[in-house]
Amino acid sequence: MRADPSLDPGSPAAGRGAASEPILRTELLSIRFGGLAALSNVNFELPREQVRAIIGPNGAGKSTFFNCLTGVLRPSSGRIMFNGEDITGLPSNEISQKGIARSYQITNILPNASVLENVRIAAQSRRHAWNMVSHHTTFPDINAKAEAALQSVGLLDKANEAASNLSHGEQRNLEIGIALATDPQLLCLDEPTAGMSAAETHHTVELVRRIAEHLTILIVEHDMEVVMGLADRITVLHYGAILAEGTPEEIQENPRVLEVYLKT
Ligand SMILES: Nc1ncnc2c1ncn2[C@@H]1O[C@H](COP(=O)(O)OP(=O)(O)OP(=O)(O)O)[C@@H](O)[C@H]1O
Ligand SMILES: [Mg+2]
Q: How far apart are CA 98 and CA 167, in angstroms?
């Protein structure tokens, strides 16, 4: 048994975690793909209610970091603590139940289902454990949750359209809605504005900013205007290791970051 006081059910840190402890912490997180060290000894700490951007060159390990956090990949070594609880190596459905949601770099929706069905499936997945015994009473709750998620991403008026009929930008926002429908505490967004027009990007930045009022957000983004406009702090990954961390102003002036990434 671990001696972590946050695991004591009588402790105020049990459940959602104490307000002062970081929502997420990684300790010496590493993952190898054959000979490639995609993440090496990443020590990362994220306080509650922060918007943190993760930036870095292609192949730096940003998506791999998300894949480890969300149970898509099992780290080779190290620990991932969420709300003070060790979640390292848990399957993705259990991590979703605990309150981490993510959107994918490549859109991952059900094209033939309606917009509402896409989010309703996600809302239901979070409730799976007790849905079996109380299906009828939870049904309106799931619909309400799904509609609230669509409202947050500005797609409620398209609820009954097939997801495939949405524009690229709308499909990316639907994916954020799907993540929100699982009622997360931590939302991980992997390049949410990729492939969007300037107007769509602006709209998505606004909606992420609104969502950030209620959630902790980790966002991987290449668009520096988006990053600088949204992030409270920025972590720079380079070859699977943290190169720098700081406020947007500090990162923009950091010579090592300019050298490997921001210099164009
Ligand atoms: N499942 C995998 N199997 C083998 N190698 C992988 C796997 N996933 C990622 N990699 C490799 O790990 C490294 C990090 O990849 P990752 O996708 O995390 O980079 P990234 O920072 O998200 O890059 P980008 O900005 O291009 O999205 C790359 O060299 C990639 O080729
Ligand atoms: Mg990536």
A: 32
- DSSP 8-state assignment for residue 40: E
Q: Which residue owns the Cα nearest ligand 1 atom 18?
A: 61
Q: Residue for token digits 């954020």?
A: 176
Round to whole Å and give the CA distance between 144 and 97.
18
Give pLDDT tens digits for 105-139.
777 899 999 999 999 999 988 755 444 444 544 66
Ligand lying closest to the C-alpha of residue 35: 1
**Domain annotation for the chain: domains and CATH numbers:** 50-73+89-262 (3.40.50.300)
Q: Both tokens of residue 89?
A: 């190596």
Decide: 58 in ligand 1 pocket, CB within 6 A.
yes
Task: Dump pLDDT digits (tens) for 205-257.
Answer: 999 999 999 999 999 999 999 999 999 999 999 999 999 999 999 999 999 99
232, 208 Cβ separation under 8 angstroms: no
Instruction: Identify the CA nearest to 245 among candidates 210, 208, 218, 206.
Output: 218
Query: In this structure, which residue's CA is closest to atom 3 in ligand 1?
Result: 33
**Residue having the nearest C-alpha atom to atom 27 of ligand 1:** 58
Taking all residues of the chain, what is their mean pLDDT, rounded to a whole number?
89
Residue 237 Cα to ligand 2 midpoint, Å, equals 11
**Ligand 2 centroid from CA 163, angstroms:** 24
Specify the pLDDT at position 264: 60
